[in-house]
Write a structure and sequence with these properties.
By secondary structure, the chain is mainly beta. The protein is built from 1 helix and 44 strands.
Length: 676
């Protein structure tokens, strides 16, 4: 007996424990009010007024329906159940209250129209989804209608989709084609009103054209020869890093075709030039130097067109050609694309392949990277607190005269591995060179810069190298050694770190001109002309018997510069002999109109003439000063007060011992700059 009592007590304890556990679970499940409450009505079409009401909601266990006709509300209705109610003719606001196990409630109201007359004035709205060409939305309204049934016409034994008043139902078709949509308006009577409409589901031909879709109609029409051939879609004849697509278009310029023969296609929508007016196309040509004419037209008026010609640079391999269509009239729509291969030459039966016609940035992001093109092309993604932006060059100098550079801001307390990456349009080809150079401006010397290249699809495939800055607050070119790299990998993602391993302290780092070391961009000079840069071409143009050359400074007293310009006024040179140089950017005289120049003359009291010119016009202004000493450096100033503020002054001309014929003397000058 004792054992039985103990067993009974244990059983009761277990039940109590299980009950507590179940209660805890119910609180968890029933957290939050019910959502997405809806109700469907099914009206008997026999003039009886009988309506079956189907409530539903997310997170609800029971419902109560207020019929809206003054009668008592329904009993509690379990999820998945329904209730029937009989109405007189009229319009009612039916309220459904949903409740969960915790007692939380939420309500919604739906209009119900009960009429024994046939629905009238049925209006149906069918729209295609803007982002999905296979998805449509249907809504309807009608007098005397209580609800609607919709048939989308894709299935032979289709079950009607119910649609309430004010509701929109959606449907996604599985294939392109023409379908009949049927909408039936229901009332409480036997009579119904029906609406039908045919809708064509098309996977539209839009940019980009990739030739990879099985549902897009890529029909091109040839002209000038080969009309029956068209543009077959074929397997990529030579997949490469430039174009690894499986399917491409093939155009054959048949033998004897017109010189203007080509092929064209009409898009389903006009090209959107609001963000860019450049279009790129991958081309595989059998010959180098082939002219390709790219033309766009208004489908309703062929007199409205823009065309641009480009030339292939390789043979029997893919390349990406960018067409500048900036002449487009934004008020005109352009739906037609016409392609002319080997334009102005009759066909010989040669075949061209093309692919990936798409709107493009005017800048192809590949080495060398100069940041001078469209800023939107340089899509840097930061991590750890090191955002990158494209900025004006904060320190334009001979070491980097570029107008635009990139800036990395390593924010305060950023992670020690903070950096940024950018995907390139074309991968780095280490077969060209395993040394990569980059111009860097660091606020601190001895800053480690880490450059990393990796496969964007497999981060385990990468190569990285370090370089260290040697100066602070000025531009310098550093070089990264990638010797030993696996040249067969797809290095299409570039990752950059400044001061890797150190937490950020809010410093700005600037960088520019990332290139193969032997292809570091060569630039025109700018003021100040210091002649110190190894990457700028100081191309002096000489006249009258003078010769100017950048050399090592022969006299460091009074001028510590390493490099200066030597001007030799040859024996018998003209009295006006001199040299001039074209600079990249026009001189900005907004803050001062005075220039200074360091001069070393072998004779005292030598007149020095400085002339400034505009290469785009005949405008010029000249000012003379005197080098009073001999065989020593001195600084001369030239007052250009009154110089034009509308002309682009970009030519600097120097005359030594002006007005005196040459006697074979050598002069030196340096540091031509604005002087405040």
């Amino acid at each position: 007996m004792k054992n039985k009592i103990q067993y009974l007590l244990f059983s009761l304890l277990f039940v109590a424990m299980a009950g507590c556990s179940d209660d805890d679970g119910l609180e968890t499940v029933a957290s939050g009010e019910p959502t997405n409450i809806s109700v469907d009505f099914q009206i008997e079409q026999d003039n009886s007024g009988d309506v079956t009401i189907f409530p539903s909601a997310e997170g609800a266990n029971t419902f109560i329906v207020d019929y809206g006709d003054g009668s008592e509300a329904s009993e509690t209705i379990a999820t998945g159940s329904n209730v029937m109610h009989t109405y007189e003719e009229g319009t009612y606001e039916v309220m459904v209250t949903a409740m969960n196990l915790a007692g939380d409630t939420a309500s919604m109201t739906q209009t119900l129209v009960v009429s024994f007359s046939a629905p009238e004035n049925l209006e149906v709205t069918i729209t295609k989804d803007a982002g999905n060409p296979f998805l449509i939305n249907v809504s309807a309204e009608a007098d005397n209608a209580a609800a609607f049934e919709v048939y989308f016409g894709e299935q032979a034994d289709e079950t009607a989709t119910p649609m309430m008043i004010g509701e929109t139902v959606s449907y996604e078709y599985s294939a392109v084609g023409t379908y009949t949509i049927t909408v039936i308006a229901l009332s409480g009577g036997e009579a119904t009103t029906t609406y039908t409409e045919e809708i064509e589901i098309v996977d539209p031909l839009l940019l980009p054209i990739t030739f990879e879709s099985e549902t897009v109609d890529y029909t091109f029409f040839n002209f000038g020869g080969g009309e029956a051939t068209g543009v077959p879609l074929v397997a990529n004849p030579s997949p490469s890093e430039i174009n690894d697509s499986e399917t491409v278009a093939s155009y054959t310029k048949v033998s004897g075709s017109e010189t203007w023969a080509g092929t064209s296609v009409t898009l389903n929508e006009a090209i959107d030039f609001s963000s860019t007016t450049f279009i790129s196309m991958d081309v595989y040509s059998p010959s180098i130097g082939t002219p390709i004419l790219f033309k766009i037209e208004d489908s309703e008026n062929s007199d409205n067109f823009v065309e641009i010609q480009a030339t292939t640079t390789v043979a029997n391999e893919w390349e990406t050609i960018v067409f500048d269509l900036s002449a487009v009239d934004q008020s005109i729509t352009y739906e037609v694309i016409a392609l002319f291969f080997n334009f102005n030459t009759s066909g010989t039966g040669e075949t061209y392949y093309f692919d990936n016609i798409q709107l493009a940035s005017p800048t192809i992001v590949e080495l060398p990277i100069t940041f001078e093109g469209s800023q939107s092309a340089y899509g840097w993604t930061e991590f750890g607190g090191a955002p990158v932006t494209i900025e004006e060059n904060p320190d334009m100098s001979d070491a980097n005269p570029s107008a635009t550079v990139a800036k990395m801001f390593k924010v305060n307390n950023s992670l020690d591995y903070a950096g940024a990456f950018m995907d390139l349009d074309n991968p780095v080809d280490f077969n060209q060179n395993t040394s990569i150079s980059m111009k860097v401006w660091s606020p601190e010397a001895n800053t480690t810069v880490t450059l990393k290249f990796e496969d964007p699809l497999d981060g385990a495939i990468f190569a990285e190298a370090n370089a260290v800055t040697t100066v602070a607050n000025e531009w310098q070119t550093i070089t990264f050694d990638f010797s030993g790299v696996d040249v067969n990998q797809n290095y299409q993602r570039m990752v950059l770190f400044f001061d890797f391993g150190s937490i950020g302290t809010g410093l700005n780092y600037y960088f520019d001109d990332i290139s193969y070391a032997d292809q570091q961009p060569v630039s025109l000079p700018n003021l100040p002309l210091t002649f110190e840069s190894e990457i700028i071409e100081y191309n002096w143009m000489n006249f009258g018997g003078a010769t100017s050359t950048v050399i090592n400074n022969p006299d460091m007293n009074g001028n510590s510069s390493s490099k200066v310009t030597e001007l030799v006024k040859g024996d018998g040179a003209q009295v006006w002999a001199g040299s001039n140089i074209l600079i990249e950017n026009a001189i900005d005289f907004s803050s001062t109109q005075t220039l200074s120049m360091k001069v070393w003359s072998p004779v005292s009291n030598a007149p020095v003439l400085l002339k400034l010119e505009a290469s785009g016009s005949d405008y010029s202004m000249e000012v003379q000063a005197t080098a009073t000493g001999a065989n020593q450096w001195e600084t001369l100033t030239f007052d250009f007060t009154g110089i034009s503020d509308t002309e682009a002054i970009d030519v600097v001309t120097v005359f030594m011992n002006f007005g005196v014929a040459g006697m074979g003397n050598t002069y030196y000058f340096d540091d031509i700059q604005l002087e405040n």
